[in-house]
Design goal:
The complex is a heterotrimer of chains A (378), B (291) and C (305). Chain A is built from 12 helices and 14 strands. By secondary structure, chain A is α/β, with parallel strands linked by helices. In chain A, the strands form 4 sheets. Chain A has a 5-stranded parallel sheet, sandwiched between helices. A 4-stranded parallel sheet of chain A has the order 7-6-8-9. Chain A is elongated and about 95 Å long. The N and C termini of chain A lie far apart (77 Å). Chain C has 305 residues and is mainly α. Chain C contains 14 helices and 4 strands. In chain C, helix 2 crosses helix 11. The chains are: A alpha/beta (378), B mainly alpha (291), C mainly alpha (305). Chains B and C meet through helix 4, helix 9 and helix 11 of B and helix 5, helix 11 and helix 13 of C.
């Protein structure tokens, strides 16, 4: 009798131990190749690095983390198919991914229908507005970027501004938001030019802007190599009014590409870019400096804000799992929604039932290019 | 002439010169082998990316450029040997797919050998803008236009004065007859592909300082260079140059005066119009078909 | 033909979860487009490098009419298909006079222009980020769930193959094959080449649009990524890889090349290299395509003692 009892206990114990050892599966679909590789590549690297580090430190809730990631190449249909694969075949507990808005929006119905928490790494405000039960996001919205820029413009006495943007999804979305919120800051958009994604020369559009009456500042809502060309053409044409870029080009690479023409350009970005120069009293310093050093030491590449978004996504997921005490999807979702005061590379995160992004305008810093490097504008 | 118009014309000429170089590359290969080389844009990419990486390794600009051009020429010859020659006699569709497959392969190799980032090449003689007729032009643009003009003259001399050049022309007119007089078609194919690849690579190095280079820069450039070749007359060298410049100007003026959103579409609308109304292009003759 | 119907009916036994069904549905949709495209490329001998444009007209046309103008989805679908066929008919007249490379480039240009319009007119199409599409519904009954869609797509695929096979054996099909062989000779024999080419073009465009509209309603979302030059190339490769002038070849080609990227994920960053390499090698060594080459091999085996 006693032997049976012992055996039964032993079997049950091993069974539950095996269960408890089952890894927590984090699914990801990212644009590692393709036109959005600039976004997906650092995101993929960041996820791999930190899953490795978390596992080396003992995992989460005593369980190993397992990352299952696919390359969606910037294609919304591929993203959808891979997301389905993650949910149905790989049976992941949570998804961190969706480098671009198009890919994210294609996957939103799947996450909602299957009840899987989905933390998106894309920018447009439409991802969290209207709020969807299972969908969250870590990057600042493009509307916040517009607000930050307009606030700075106002402080410099600008009342009339010109807009130039590309044909990509990011560009169009941000252009739409900026047109909407400009009036709230008392700024009049007097010129609105566009260029194509692969265009190599924007002097035609900039010439039209230069000839528009009363332009006091120019905002380039762009992503990729377009803004670097715009910046060079800008100086070539000798336009002197202030030039603002978007957070889409917040990287050292933009400065390298634009060269000397980038001097004096301002843009809103996460504190990650100026991690070393932050005062020690800055609440964000520890987190951003830690991430920057880890990433650069491992990959020998400049840190990227997009990688930072992936870091935030993963860490928020881990935080939620710890809070929920399990990887149960519904409990993790509730835990995510209740996160307050969490410090990420993008800023302080305060999620709520109405706000599935959690950042506010202080999360953005206004940076200026000085002597070929980023400097904080006070 | 208003300063605005001068600006549009100058930027149109710069971009047009690049289209002309790419179109010339298409033209030479088409003449030698009747193959439309969809990988032509990739040669431009290879020129720019290879130059960027050689520069990063410490080579001075002229050497890096030379090395990049040589690399592209080698890849062009490899393309003939491994892709085009074995498929001799295949249908048009098959050949098109082979070159497209080659283009995808080269792009994939580029992301593995180099990376997926955007790279800038240094301008040949600095960035200080030069004022011309009320417009400003980057010095690199002058290099682009100037070097293209030189290349066109050099090619003209090559095709009309040297034996190899004339051999290539002979093969394009009548392959069988050329073989009968002792011209090695295999050698002609190798030289043509190498030459086209070198042209593409040079275009990539010239334009790199202005437009930057990355692993996928060849896709749109290839298609537009192709539209330029058709505009000028497929198979006609002078046509390629005229087509390229015209297309560049049309794009620039269209973006300036009509709609900058549809700038990319201009090249293809023009191409469609030419194909429907004047398939021979601006400078090509009317083709006759043997029954 | 019966084998295909049986395969479609029995395949669900092998499909374990919704992800497998999804792949099967995507294969089916691509196969429908390819069967239509095969009529044009394989039988009529005309190249089209812009068929993704017609796919896009079907997808976006149906999406816009249903989402922005509130049309019933089935009606929107029918209208979009008709629009694509009409456009093909109108544009086809001047374009189909061209031959070989010139025709390829003209269709390429057409496809790219359509993709640029779709990406630029964001008031209607949602621009580069795409737009949501309402599900397919008829009189209050909504078609939802992977299994239901699987049966619909499977049935339509069988119907399209049946249509294609019958067409090929009909006078129209014989006329198409004649003009593929030699347009001048066909003309001498009294075949109205331009009209037949135009019919083949418009028909394949309509079929592509049908598949496009179905894809849009199924996934609930459409982006310009499906209307690009790259997608047109994928479709042509599927047809040529599977075997030109072989309806089943088109289906096989679609199946292999839709499933292939899912299998290639194991290659990670070498995926593009492998894909390009596969394209080149199959075209060099199997220029007639997979199914005809295998069929020829099988025939030779039978004859040898």
């Amino acid at each position: 009798m006693k032997l049976h009892a012992w055996l039964a206990t032993a079997i049950l114990a091993t069974a539950s131990a095996v269960q408890a050892q089952a890894p927590i599966r984090i699914g990801a679909f990212l644009s590692v190749t393709g036109p959005a590789a600039f976004l997906g590549d650092p995101e993929q690297k960041t996820l791999e690095l930190y899953v490795e580090r978390l596992n080396a430190a003992g995992g989460v809730l005593g369980r190993r983390l397992e990352l299952v990631s696919y390359d969606s190449g910037g294609d919304a249909e591929k993203a959808r198919t891979f997301a389905k694969r993650l949910i149905e075949q790989d049976r992941v507990d949570l998804i961190v991914g969706g480098s671009t808005t198009g890919e994210t929006m294609a996957v939103v119905p799947l996450a909602e229908a299957a009840g899987v928490p989905f933390i998106s790494l894309a920018g447009a405000v439409v991802i969290v507005e209207p709020v969807k039960k299972w969908v969250f996001k870590t990057p600042h919205t493009d509307r916040m970027a517009c607000d930050k820029i307009f606030v700075d413009m106002k402080a410099r006495g600008v009342a009339k501004a010109a807009l130039i943007s590309g044909s990509g999804g990011f560009d169009k979305s941000m252009r739409g938001e900026c047109l909407k919120v400009a009036k709230n800051h008392g700024i009049d958009i007097v010129a609105d030019e566009t260029y194509g994604a692969g265009d190599t020369d924007m002097t035609a559009q900039l010439t039209k802007i230069r000839n528009s009456a009363g332009v006091q500042a120019v905002l380039n809502a762009g992503f990729g190599q377009g803004p670097a060309i715009v910046t060079r053409n800008y100086r070539q044409l000798g336009i002197t009014v202030p030039l603002y870029q978007s957070h889409g080009v917040a990287s050292k690479q933009f400065i390298k590409l634009a060269g000397d023409a980038a001097e004096g350009v301002r843009l809103p970005a996460a504190a990650l870019l100026v991690a070393e120069t932050l005062p020690d009293s800055d609440p964000q310093k520890t987190v951003v400096l830690g991430y920057k050093q880890a990433y650069e030491a491992r990959f020998k590449q400049d840190v990227s804000t997009f990688g930072g978004h992936a870091y935030d996504g993963l860490m928020l997921a881990v935080e939620a799992i710890k809070k929920a005490g399990s990887a149960d999807k519904a409990r993790v979702r509730d835990a995510l929604e209740s996160i307050r005061g969490y410090m990420g590379t993008a800023g302080v995160v305060n999620m709520s039932a109405q706000d599935h992004m959690g950042l506010d305008l202080t999360a953005f810093r206004m940076l200026e290019v000085r002597k070929g490097d980023w400097a904080l504008v006070q | 002439m208003s300063a605005q118009l001068a600006q549009f014309l100058l930027s149109g000429l710069t971009v047009g010169a690049i289209y002309a170089l790419v179109a010339l590359g298409f033209c030479i290969i088409y003449n030698a082998s009747h193959v439309i080389n969809f990988a032509q844009g990739e040669f431009v990419m290879i020129g720019g990316m290879a130059a960027a990486s050689f520069l990063g390794a410490g080579l001075p600009l002229p050497l890096a450029a030379l090395a990049a051009v040589a690399l592209a020429a080698l890849i062009g010859m490899a393309l003939v040997k491994f892709a085009v020659a074995p498929a001799r006699g295949a249908s048009v569709v098959t050949l098109i797919i082979i070159t497209i497959g080659a283009a995808i392969l080269l792009r994939g190799l580029a992301t593995v050998v180099w990376d997926k980032r955007i790279h800038a090449l240094p301008a040949f003689s600095g960035d200080a803008p030069i004022a011309v007729a009320g417009a400003t032009i980057a010095p690199q643009s002058l290099w682009v236009i100037g070097v293209t003009a030189l290349i066109v003259c050099a090619l003209w001399g090559f095709f009309n004065r040297t034996l190899t050049g004339k051999a290539i022309l002979a093969v394009s007119h009548n392959r069988l007859a050329a073989q009968l007089v002792g011209i090695s078609v295999q050698r002609v194919l190798l030289v043509s592909f190498a030459l086209s690849a070198a042209l593409g690579a040079l275009a990539g190095i010239l334009i790199g300082p202005i437009t930057f280079t990355s692993w996928d820069v060849g896709v749109m450039l290839g298609l537009k260079g192709f539209a330029a070749a058709i505009l000028g007359g497929m198979g006609s060298g002078p046509g390629a140059v005229v087509g390229g410049l015209t297309l560049g100007l049309l794009e620039s003026l269209g973006a300036g005066y009509l709609s900058s959103a549809y700038k990319d579409a201009i090249a293809f609308i023009v191409m469609l119009a030419v194909l429907v109304l004047m398939p021979g292009g601006l400078l090509g003759g009317r083709a006759t078909e043997r029954v | 033909m019966l084998a295909l119907a049986a395969a479609v009916a029995l395949a669900p036994l092998a499909l374990a979860n919704n992800y497998h069904y999804e792949i099967a549905i995507l294969v089916g949709l691509n196969a429908i487009v390819c069967v239509g495209l095969n009529l044009l490329i394989g039988y009529a001998g005309q190249i089209s490098l812009g068929h993704a444009g017609f796919f896009g007209i079907g997808a976006y046309g149906s999406a816009i009419l249903a989402a922005r103008y509130g049309w019933p989805p089935v009606l929107a679908l029918a209208a979009a298909v008709a629009a694509a066929a009409a456009l093909a008919y109108a544009v086809g007249r001047p374009i189909l006079r061209l031959k070989g490379h010139y025709l390829a480039m003209a269709t390429l240009g057409l496809g790219i222009i359509i993709s640029i319009v779709v990406a630029t007119e964001d008031r209607y199409t949602g621009g580069p980020d795409g737009m949501s599409v309402p599900p397919l519904a008829l009189g209050g009954v909504t078609l939802a769930g992977e299994r239901a869609w699987y049966w619909l797509v499977g049935a339509l695929l069988v119907a399209t193959v049946w249509l294609s096979l019958n067409l090929i054996d009909s006078p129209l099909g014989r006329a198409l094959r004649a003009l593929h062989g030699s347009e001048v000779a066909a003309g001498v024999a009294g075949i109205d080449s331009p009209r037949h080419k135009l019919l083949a073009f418009a028909l394949s465009a309509g079929i592509a649009a049908l598949a496009g509209a179905l894809a849009a309603h199924y996934t609930g979302f459409i982006t310009p990524g499906k209307v690009t030059f790259q997608h047109s190339i994928e479709l042509v490769v599927m047809v040529v890889f599977g075997g030109m002038a072989s309806t089943f070849g088109a289906v096989v080609g679609a199946a292999v090349l839709t499933a292939l990227p899912q299998l290639l994920t194991v290659f990670k960053e070498y995926e593009m290299v492998v894909f390009g390499g596969v394209m080149m090698l199959t075209m060099i060594f199997m220029p007639r395509g997979l199914v005809p080459t295998l069929a020829a091999l099988a025939a030779r085996r039978e004859r040898a003692p």
